[in-house]
Every structure is written in structure tokens, then in C-alpha cells.
Amino acid sequence: MYPKHCVTCLDERTDLSDISQLVIFIRTIQYDFSVAEEMLDLIPLHGTTEGTDIFEAVNKLVSVYGGFDKCSCIVTDGTRAMTGT
């Protein structure tokens, strides 16, 4: 059964080889109100890590799973690259 709603959590870090990694977690809430949290993907970001780069990577991945229709919110650490400000 597909989840009723989900929350997407994002964080970007640089690994030991100097490549930025975007980790995407998803927390789903089922119809019986049970909650599950899983790592959805770890995406290497080669080149720049501006807001548009992060958005394109997230949008591409989320579209594989049906888009943002059931996403109730997106959680970040508030940095400029994550919020686009």
C-alpha cells in the first residue's frame, strides 16, 4: 500500500574525496498512521551545489516516485543552498 503522506528530509555534505553528497530521507505516514523512515537515495553532486543543482537532483528523484503530490513538507538544515535564498 502506498503511503498517505510523506515528509522529505535533505542534507548535503562533502565526503573524504571532496565530492558533495546529497542524502535524501523519506518519512512516510500510512493510512493506519504507522510511520516509517528510510534513506531514499544518496546522490553525488559533481560541480556546483547551488540551490538549483540540489532542486534538480531532488526533483528528478521524486518524479520517479510519483512527484510531490503526497509530500506534506520538505525539511532542510536551513542553509542558503537548501533554501534558495
Task: Please tell me about this protein's structure.
The chain is α+β, with helices and mostly antiparallel strands. It has one domain (5-76). It is built from 2 helices and 4 strands; from the N terminus they run βββαβα. The protein has a 4-stranded mixed beta sheet, covered by helices on one side. A hairpin with a 5-residue loop joins strand 1 and strand 2 (20-29). 12% of the residues are buried. The model has no long low-confidence stretch (mean pLDDT 77).
Q: What are the SSEs and their pairings?
A:
Elements: E1 5-14, E2 20-29, E3 35-45, H1 51-64, E4 71-75, H2 80-83
Parallel strand pairs: 1-4
Antiparallel strand pairs: 1-2, 2-3
Features:
85 residues, alpha+beta, four-stranded mixed beta sheet, elongated, 4 strands, 2 helices
